[in-house]
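Good morning C.,

I know you're traveling, so I'll keep this short. The sequence:
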Amino acid sequence: MTTSPRIAMLSSILTAALLTSCTATAPPVGTQPSTPSQDALLAYERYWSVSQEAFSAPSARDWTADLQGVASGSALDSLIDDVRNYADFPAHTEGAVTRSPTVGIATDDRVEIVDCVQLGDSRLIADATGEVLDDLANRAPRYRFRAEVVLHRDEWLVDRTEPALDELC
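The C-alpha cells, ready to paste straight into the viewer:
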C-alpha cells in the first residue's frame, strides 16, 4: 500500500508538532520551581543594581521607567525623589556598597528582606567640584536595611524600604 505524498507530509508535520509540544512543556532536568523567597531576593538584587546605576549617573537620563521596573509604592517615590535631587544638585555616587540580604517573613505575595548594608568606600561626590559631600566622620559605616518585596500582578517589586542607621550589623 502506497501513501500519497500529501498524507506523508501531514503525518511528518503532525509528528513534529507533537514532539515539539512535548519537549516545549517538559521542565529542564534537575531544575526546581522557584519560590516566592527566591523570586523576591532576585527582585531585591535588581532594585539595588538599578538604583546604584541611577545614583552613579543621575543626570545621564530619565531613570523613572527603570526605577518603576524594580520598585513601587513608597520605595519608588523615595528612589525617584533621591535620583532627581542628585541630578538637580548635581552630584553622583562613587565606590562600592556591599550587602548581605536574608529573607525574613515570607508569604506567597509578600517577602521581607533584612539586609546589612556596608558603605565601604562609597561616597557622594559633587559633579562641579569633585568634593565629597558625605559626612564621613559621622555616618554609620554599616547598618540594618529592611525591604518589603511584593508581588504585583506577576512581577516582584520592592514596595517599602526602611534603613535603620542606628542598628549596626
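Safe travels,
E.
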